Prior knowledge:
Layout: H1 6-20, H2 24-55, H3 76-79
Amino acid sequence: MFGIGMPELLVILVVALLVLGPKKLPEIARSLGRGMAEFRRASNEFTRTLSASLDEPPPAPPKPSVVENKPAAEPAAATLKRDDE
């Protein structure tokens, strides 16, 4: 469990009991447990979503739309005649 042995865990609990007191320690432990459970749920949901998105085939490219071909207007320079011609 995180590389912490039983003696280290007991020391941490005794220090927490001395610092926080016997009334606050259960409340803090309960909220810490709830926070860890919520984090675990979010992590599992993220993993599930990620694996589901990797399993889906990629979306098909959109079909080209049909556009009528209209002749382009001639550029203005092509319609003007030069004076030297």
